[in-house]
Amino acid sequence: MTREFQVIIEKDADGFLIADVPALKGCHTQAKSMDSLKVRVKEAIELCSEVNILPVGCG
Question: Which domains are seen in the chain, by residue range?
Fold first, then answer.
């Protein structure tokens, strides 16, 4: 099953790209290039999805 998430990307003062996934609490990452950011945000979504599906009190 493929899920889609909105990703908000901003550039910080040091030139890093910051990606935030509002639908997944605490899911964000950063990178210097858009190519690296795409890879990192996919990994972050996978990890955050696993954490966010655990029942309350687990983990």
Answer: 8-52 (3.30.160.250)
